[in-house]
Amino acid sequence: MKKFADRLREARMSAGMTQEQLGFALGVTKSSISAWENGRETPSFRLLPTLRIVLNRSLDELLCGTSSEVRTDRETYALEKVLPRASSPSEKALLTRYRNLSPRRREALLELMKPDN
Asked: pLDDT for 52-93, tens place per residue?
């Protein structure tokens, strides 16, 4: 049976998120996410509801390895409060397209958008 650290890593990758992106959504550092995924630490209890929403996984699945139905309308609303919201239809379309990119393509796009020093 897989450990929490493995299930967390798989859920994050399945969501197409980097450790940095997940950390941002939870208000923690990339190092914290890395420590969780390597089994050195575990997230605090207060972060579990948000972790569940952001990764679209049940706590049963994340903590115990058993699956159940996820994301209700209420949870979708909560997710919109955690992640950045679009202010216009064109920004919403852009944000949707960005979120649908693979992690590698997201990183490449962000690299292109870095200001020149």
From this structure: 888 988 888 888 887 654 445 555 555 555 555 667 777 777
Dist. CA 78–CA 66, nearest whole Å: 23
The string of DSSP letters for 71-85 reads --HHHHHHHHHHS--
For 29, what's the count of Cα atoms within 13 Å in the CB-facing half-sphere?
A: 4
Mean pLDDT of the chain: 80
Q: Is 86 helix (H, G, I), strand (E, B) or coil?
A: coil
Q: What angle do CA 14, 53, 3 make, to 5 degrees?
A: 55
CATH no. for 4-83? 1.10.260.40
- Measure Cα distances from 88 to 40, 49, 64, 82, 106 in Å: 42, 28, 40, 18, 21
